[in-house]
Design brief:
Radius of gyration of chain A: 22 Å
Structural class of chain A: alpha/beta
CATH superfamily of the largest domain in chain B: Glycogen Phosphorylase B
Largest sheet of chain B: 6 strands, parallel
Oligomer: heterodimer
Number of strands of chain B: 12
Radius of gyration of chain B: 21 Å
Strand content of chain A: 5-15%
Order of helices and strands of chain A: EHEEHEHEEHEHEHEHEHHHHH
Strand order of the largest sheet of chain A: 2-1-3-4-5-6
Strand order of the largest sheet of chain B: 2-1-3-4-5-6
Number of strands of chain A: 10
CATH class of the largest domain in chain B: Alpha Beta
Structural class of chain B: alpha/beta
Shape of chain B: globular
Shape of chain A: globular
Helix content of chain A: 40-55%
CATH topology of the largest domain in chain B: Rossmann fold
Helix content of chain B: 25-40%
């Protein structure tokens, strides 16, 4: 199946986020420079509200996304925002904020699997990690293995720990900075109490599992660059797989199930269908 | 309404899950809904664990208005009106990962498979309009391992409409597969600690049969291993018992408990028997022991010495399960889908 075209309307000096977004969108569409007077792509992406041809694109009836790079453009909060459709002012999504992450590259680790990994490595049953105290070379392992991660005044660290599905305790300002729902996504306390809170959470497998899951979902909803590209592609109508495109649907579904590229099931699937679709395993 | 009840298939095997699916289909049909049972074989070995899950993702379900998924991996089925009524996940990867029969260890492949399975499970279950389970025990596992909340939805046991109370005889009855997780051993050893002369009759077959036969010699003929017992005989065995003993390890639900109550018999169980404890209140409709042979034997004697107590407890058990109806189960499941 040929991917649909995404027509690009550019203005000089487009933001850095645009190529990053397009890199991720090529999975669902083929971005091309286009002219609304002449071309008829499945959807449009304008790199700024002032991009040439935007009015004509809006008039074409095809879905349109507009990248808004500054607060002054739409009187919105700081950060890169993007809107979809022909009502620019009312329909805005925050997209890939500065602390964004590629969630698909971070395998979430539920608390019971963390515990088993710790058992394998002879680590203590209760293993509490303070963000900022672990060297860069060990940070990811620490976030993957921790019973609980304590984060103080570091929103980027909180996002990263949450992406690993780690149950986190933090201060209220950091929780607010990432839009975490207190008591659902993270546990919050005063600086002096965070260690005690972490110990309690570490011993409560049920709450830890719920926090870890919820935190990961927050990252996927708000901070995941690939997820944002996927949502945009969906809003632009570019992720409607055809009846005959079962492979595309399945590939998308494996991504939805957070399946790593090296997962054995991908090989088993390729091997199973090789004979019937004329491909080699 | 057109309904698909979805479940895993263990070819040529028939147990509680199959009974539940059949009964659910029958109840949906009785409520006036066109209902099909959709089953796919499943492989439980670790390297092939995801195969059937993936197959469920590809099954066309657009002929149905609602799909009700029951067990791993059937809840991977996709449908906008998916409701899950969970019997169990793949326990070998979760709470039973350290059990002798599980092929999960602490090697890297095991741990990554557990991680990925947990992630797949969580996401597939999150897709459902609502997740019910067969018991609080299963709800608790979902919360503990997947961080998901769910609701227990109880159903009547097999033979519910045929069970009836009879005399309070001189035997304690039990019915189970004779396997390690059902723990028939302590029930038998309990006889050696019992001085009342009460007998123990166990219906069922399994790998522990020979071991139990040998143990029977130590209790001087007070143990009857009945082997396979057909439904008619099972109903009568329940009816004539003094009490029912059932003390498995961390049971999901435990039909035997509900069948005992349906027959108006008290249940002797253990404090770590899982779903059984959702029904048995110590001293009210049964006796909750520490699971040791001594405590079980003492419980046998207590009821043998006071049959009025056994009768009162049995009656309380009967009241406890009186409200269970398949029609109520169907109603709750379909409400969640609408």
């Amino acid at each position: 199946m040929t991917p649909p075209f995404l027509g690009l309307l550019v203005s000089p000096g487009y933001p850095d986020g645009v190529p990053r977004l397009l890199e991720r969108m090529v999975r669902w569409c083929r971005p091309v420079w286009a002219d609304p007077e002449r071309d008829d792509p499945a959807a449009w992406l304008a790199t700024a509200p002032t991009a040439a041809g935007l009015s004509a694109a809006l008039a074409s009836g095809a879905p349109v996304a507009v990248w808004v790079a500054s607060a002054s453009d739409l009187a919105l909060a700081a950060g890169e925002v993007l809107t979809v459709g022909d009502d620019v002012a009312l329909d805005v999504d925050v997209l890939a904020p500065p602390s964004g992450i590629d969630a698909s590259a971070v395998p979430p680790m539920p608390p019971f699997v963390r515990a088993r990994w710790r058992a394998r490595h002879g680590l203590p049953e209760r293993f509490i990690v303070r963000a900022g105290t672990v060297g860069d070379g060990h940070r990811q392992s620490a976030y993957a293995l921790a019973s609980v991660v304590i984060v103080e005044a570091d929103p980027a660290a909180l996002v990263e720990a949450m992406a690993w599905g780690a149950p986190c305790v933090t201060d209220s300002a950091t929780a607010a900075a990432v839009g975490a729902d207190i008591g659902v996504d993270v546990l919050v306390g005063d600086a002096g109490d965070l260690g005690d809170l972490a110990a309690v959470l570490a011993d409560d497998q049920r709450r830890a599992a719920a926090f870890g899951r919820s935190a990961r979902r927050l990252v996927e909803r708000t901070f995941d660059r690939t997820g944002a590209a996927r949502r945009l592609a969906g809003r632009l109508g570019l992720v409607e797989w055809g009846e005959d495109d079962w492979r595309g649907r399945l590939t998308d579904d494996l991504a939805h199930l957070c399946t790593p590229p090296v997962a054995r099931i991908r090989d088993r699937f390729d091997s199973a269908v090789a004979g019937v679709v004329g491909e080699t395993a | 309404m057109r309904i698909a009840v979805c479940g895993a298939q263990m070819p040529f095997a028939r147990g509680g899950a199959e009974l539940l699916m059949d009964n659910l289909v029958a109840a949906c049909r009785a409520a006036g809904h066109d209902t099909e049972l959709v089953r796919l074989p499943v492989a439980w070995e670790r390297p092939r664990l995801f195969d059937s899950a993936l197959a469920w993702r590809l099954i066309p379900t657009d002929s149905f208005d609602v799909v009700i998924a029951t067990n791993f991996p059937s809840y991977f089925v996709r449908h906008p009106n998916k409701v899950v009524w969970l019997l169990h996940q793949h326990r070998g990867a979760y709470d039973a990962a350290d059990a002798a029969w599980s092929d999960f260890g602490l090697d890297g492949d095991s741990l990554e498979t557990q991680r990925l399975l947990s992630e797949w499970d969580t996401r597939a279950l999150e897709e459902a309009r609502r997740v019910f389970t067969i018991s609080e025990v299963v709800c608790d596992r979902l919360l503990r391992y997947n961080g998901l909340t769910s609701t227990a939805l109880y159903h009547p046991p097999p033979l519910a409409d045929r069970l009836h109370a009879g005399d309070f005889g001189d035997y304690v009855f039990s019915a189970m597969r004779l396997e390690g997780n059902k723990r028939p051993g302590p029930l038998v050893e309990g006889l050696a600690h019992s001085s009342s002369g009460v007998r123990l009759a166990i219906a069922g077959t399994g790998s522990l049969e020979a071991e139990l036969t040998s143990a029977a010699r130590a209790v001087a003929g007070r143990l009857d291993l009945l082997g396979f017992v057909d439904d008619d005989a099972l109903v009568e065995r329940f009816a004539g018992a003094l009490a029912v003993a059932y003390a498995p390890h961390d049971e999901d639900y435990g039909y035997v408990t509900l069948q005992a109550f349906g027959a108006g018999k008290p249940v002797i169980t253990a404090k770590d028997s899982g779903g059984v404890l959702e029904w048995v209140d110590d001293g009210v409709n049964g006796i909750v022991t520490d699971g040791s042979p001594a405590a079980l034997g003492e419980a046998y004697d207590r009821l043998a010495a006071d049959k009025q107590l056994a009768r009162r407890m049995g009656e309380a058990g009967r009241e406890r399960v009186a409200g269970l109806r398949w029609s109520g189960v169907v109603e709750r499941l379909l409400e969640a889908a609408s």
